[in-house]
Amino acid sequence: MSRVGKMPIGVPQGVSVIIDDSEVTVKGPNGELRRQFNPDMQIALGDNTLTVSRPSDDRVHRSLHGLTRSLLANMVEGVTSGFVRTLEIVGVGYRVRLEGDNLVINIGFSHTVEVTPLPGITLSVEGNNRIKVSGIDKEVVGEMAARIRRIRPPDSYKGKGIRYSGEVVRLKPGKAGKAIGR
Question: How many other β-carbons are positioned within 10 Å of the β-carbon of residue 159?
């Protein structure tokens, strides 16, 4: 039995869950999320807890059990507190600013890069080198952060570029390290 799938999900006060066959709608103070799940998974709501059960021990059902529970838990957490992903811009002259809802990034190209947020995403800038991506859907927040990082991933020699907050970039020694290593 899946250890993740067996754990019940607590539904906080102010959050409503509507189960319609295999579609689940979660409404909370931050908004509403709706998702279609595999019809084989049984999702039940009882006294402020959500539980997921599977019909058999088939390989497919075992893999879907924990996945369904994790997705439901992320939906409940998203409508109550939301998700935030922070990015840092490292490099001399690299900076970011907010124009309306869009980000304008100077990242060493001959032109500035403008980033439009996905629906349901809020972008904010702290200082001139930190970007906060926030929203209620964990999947969309991660996708938006990955798209921003993809503009200029961290360089493996100097460490310049856009990285996740707390990401460790291992630097290569370069040409000088090769001569010393002999």
Answer: 13
Quote the domain boundaries for residue 32. 3-80
* CATH of residue 90: 3.90.930.12
What is the pLDDT tens value at each position of the chain, 182 positions in all? 558 888 999 999 999 999 998 899 999 999 999 999 999 999 999 989 999 999 999 999 999 999 999 999 999 999 999 999 999 999 999 999 999 999 999 999 999 999 999 999 999 999 999 999 999 999 999 999 999 999 999 999 999 999 999 999 999 988 876 666 55
Name the phi and psi angles at 166, rounded to 5.
90, -5
Q: Which contiguous run of DSSP H or E holds residue 53?
A: strand 49-53
Task: Return the axis-axis angle of helices 59-80 and 138-151, rounded to nearest 10°.
Answer: 90
Same domain, 72 and 113: no
- In the chain, what's the furthest Cα-to-Cα distance? 68
Q: Around 152, how many Cα atoms within 13 Å sit in the side-chain half-sphere?
A: 23
Number of domains in the chain: 2
Same domain, 109 and 144: yes
- Kindly state whether residue 169 falls inside one of the protein's structural domains: no
In angstroms, rounded to a whole number, what is the distance separating the alpha carbons of residues 67 and 177? 45
- Could you tell me if 7 and 71 lie in one domain? yes
Read off the amino acid at residue 142. Answer: G
